[in-house]
Amino acid sequence: MTMGVVDRKNVSKLVNFRHDLHRNPELSGREKNTADRIVKFMKDYKPDHIITGIGGNGCAFVYKGKQKGPVVVFRADMDALPIREKSELNYSSKKENVAHMCGHDGHMVTLAGVGVYLCKQRPQKGTIILLYQPSEETGQGAKRIIKDELFKNYAPDYIFSFHNIPGYEKNEIVLKKGNFSAASVGMSIKLQGISSHAAHPEKGISPVVLISEIIDKFETLNNYDEKNFRFGTIVGVNVGEKSFGTMPEKGVLHATLRARTDKNLDKMKNIIKEFVDKKARKRELEYKIEWKEEFKSIKNSVKAYKILKKAIQNKKLKYTKRQYSFRWSEDFGEYSKYFDSCFFGLGIGENAKNLHNPYYFFPDEIIETGIAIYISILKQLKLI
């Protein structure tokens, strides 16, 4: 780390703090101990206000300037994944089947580094909020934060966040105008028919054929063109049991629908709903569709994007402009519905393991670059 925004002693503290968070991951909605660790760490860096319990297990640290000015929020996600870590790190997860395999520990510590800086360089004007958000992986955290009265008291003029991204050089910043990442939603289609003896299938109503037709329907809808993608991924199917004498009566299909824009995702949802309704009625099957873990697409505002880009250029940091939206989702899209916001990527290595991989690794070397970007944004807005 050579950015120089934080002294060597505090850089070492930040790295140790990340390793501590990495050892002690918590799943979405269960981040209470994570929040406690963050609060304990951040108290040493003298925020003007500490907010706990925001959006559930979230917390926030407020640094206020003496003069009026914009409210700027930097946001980090807190939750880990239900994955068994397979690394051989000396600070690997202590919890079985729970691990920070998406780098949220690194995001949290990057934000803490901004607090380290602001402790000595207090803002001259405006309000700076370091927001730790729970439940990103399930798409619930941002929604709860926005609805929370504690957050409404600090409605931001600007909100920024980032995600570490494999496939790019370490410390390379990834920018994208407009839509940064996809909208997505989980879908479960539950079908109920009537079982019968396997010798007389015509006397029952099986869900098997309809499930097959739904899978075929997806193939007709799927469009993987990077310019305007829209597709469904079947993630699970369950029909019947290993009972050779009985035709099944129940079936369930699980899929993720994904599209470049919220509008295209809604269109796809409606097409599938209408198809299932029509076919289920024809086959006299009862059905229920459940929607889970919905993510809005991230839409970077023109105003916030310009601020971020200028801040990066001022620091002479290496960046690349991405032509097409990422196909993964992130619940930061909820903020972009209401506020001037901008999301960016930070490379962790061209050959780095993918996110959600049991061998995934977050490099400590990128932490200070993330801090430097946030600090440069504050300088660009003349808050410090």
Automatic annotation (TrEMBL):
<dbReference type="Pfam" id="PF01546">
    <property type="entry name" value="Peptidase_M20"/>
</dbReference>
<dbReference type="GO" id="GO:0016787">
    <property type="term" value="F:hydrolase activity"/>
</dbReference>
<feature type="binding site">
    <location>
        <position position="356"/>
    </location>
    <ligand>
        <name>Mn(2+)</name>
    </ligand>
</feature>
<dbReference type="InterPro" id="IPR011650">
    <property type="entry name" value="Peptidase_M20_dimer"/>
</dbReference>
<feature type="binding site">
    <location>
        <position position="137"/>
    </location>
    <ligand>
        <name>Mn(2+)</name>
    </ligand>
</feature>
<feature type="binding site">
    <location>
        <position position="104"/>
    </location>
    <ligand>
        <name>Mn(2+)</name>
    </ligand>
</feature>
<dbReference type="InterPro" id="IPR017439">
    <property type="entry name" value="Amidohydrolase"/>
</dbReference>
<feature type="binding site">
    <location>
        <position position="102"/>
    </location>
    <ligand>
        <name>Mn(2+)</name>
    </ligand>
</feature>
<feature type="domain" description="Peptidase M20 dimerisation">
    <location>
        <begin position="184"/>
        <end position="282"/>
    </location>
</feature>
<keyword id="KW-0464">Manganese</keyword>
<protein>
    <submittedName>
        <fullName>Amidohydrolase</fullName>
    </submittedName>
</protein>
<feature type="binding site">
    <location>
        <position position="163"/>
    </location>
    <ligand>
        <name>Mn(2+)</name>
    </ligand>
</feature>
<dbReference type="InterPro" id="IPR002933">
    <property type="entry name" value="Peptidase_M20"/>
</dbReference>
<dbReference type="GO" id="GO:0046872">
    <property type="term" value="F:metal ion binding"/>
</dbReference>
<keyword id="KW-0479">Metal-binding</keyword>
<dbReference type="Pfam" id="PF07687">
    <property type="entry name" value="M20_dimer"/>
</dbReference>
<dbReference type="InterPro" id="IPR036264">
    <property type="entry name" value="Bact_exopeptidase_dim_dom"/>
</dbReference>
